[in-house]
């Protein structure tokens, strides 16, 4: 069984009309899934989430920080009220609902050995005492804490265009959580971290893996990096359960990043995560939405994630009723699969390829020296 977490109450997580993170993307994704008939069979069930309690949030966040969010006032000491992460009336309840969905998903996995996908999850920049980068509560980390009640080894993989810095930091000294993040290099992009030499510390030494991708990396570069790094880590770590942040802001059309991934490359990568989860973790996988700032891309991307988890065909043919609904709301056509091919010019590709080679060789050497993996 795959539980899909979405409710129209997620729409309350809204930083305003000028903000790039539009809650409509989740609604459109869920509507597309519905129109595709994913809830008509017994493989997938839509679940209404409950907000996280203070006790739940305290698994990761300090009580002072939770109180600061509850106050709903700008507070720079906690990263609240910045241009990226403004406060608004109802921000506390909206944030704890998204977090509650990931926590509930993890609890169901613990109880039923199922998989789940939270469209409102993946807020990977939040820190124990700090809001950052559109993220208030770190739902991936909260879900991981719940999964740890039953399982020993948790593999977190993050393919969002940005580094999964919050999740990495929270488990930086913890060997029971292996974090892997592929993202546009921090040399160019927020949050400015996620370099190969961030490998974990203390008991967690070697359990943080970062693949900073060169600017304008596309399908070829992403799939090469993924295949060189991710399968050997699964083979070495043998996780009990997989948490995947499936942000789609590495897409070439995304306004916030400078990457060239297409929906073809994105779905291939997600497909591999699903396969590896089946091979090594008995198919237990928690998918969390994350970034994605082109409304025309997110619904098809996330509907594809769900179909891959369901082992069903990708949505190459979009239901006409949904397309009409989408155009009325978004003003443009949705992207479809197969996506166009994107390739940078020859000179750029040479530069990208050289930079990536150096990154991959460096990262493999570091981890080989630590654990003999690679
Ligand atoms: Zn992102």
What descriptive keywords fit this protein?
single chain, binds zinc ion, alpha/beta, 40% helix, 8-stranded parallel beta sheet, Arginase, Chain A, 11 helices, 374 residues
Q: How is this structure best described in words?
A:
The chain is an alpha/beta fold and 374 residues long. The chain has one domain: Arginase, Chain A, CATH 3.40.800. 40% of the residues lie in helices and 11% in strands. The chain contains eleven helices and eight strands. An eight-stranded parallel sheet has the order 2-1-3-8-7-4-5-6, with helices on both faces. The protein is globular and about 50 Å long. Zinc ion binds at residues 160-162, 247, 249, 291. The site of zinc ion (ZN) has 6 residues, from loops.
How is the secondary structure organized here?
Layout: E1 2-5, H1 24-35, E2 44-47, H2 54-57, H3 63-71, H4 91-112, E3 115-118, H5 139-147, E4 154-158, H6 165-170, E5 177-184, E6 208-213, H7 219-237, E7 241-245, H8 263-280, E8 285-288, H9 298-310, H10 320-330, H11 346-371
Parallel strand pairs: 1-2, 1-3, 3-8, 4-5, 4-7, 5-6, 7-8
Helix pairs in contact: 1-9, 4-5, 7-8, 7-11, 8-9
Bound molecules: zinc ion.
The site of zinc ion has 6 residues, from loops.
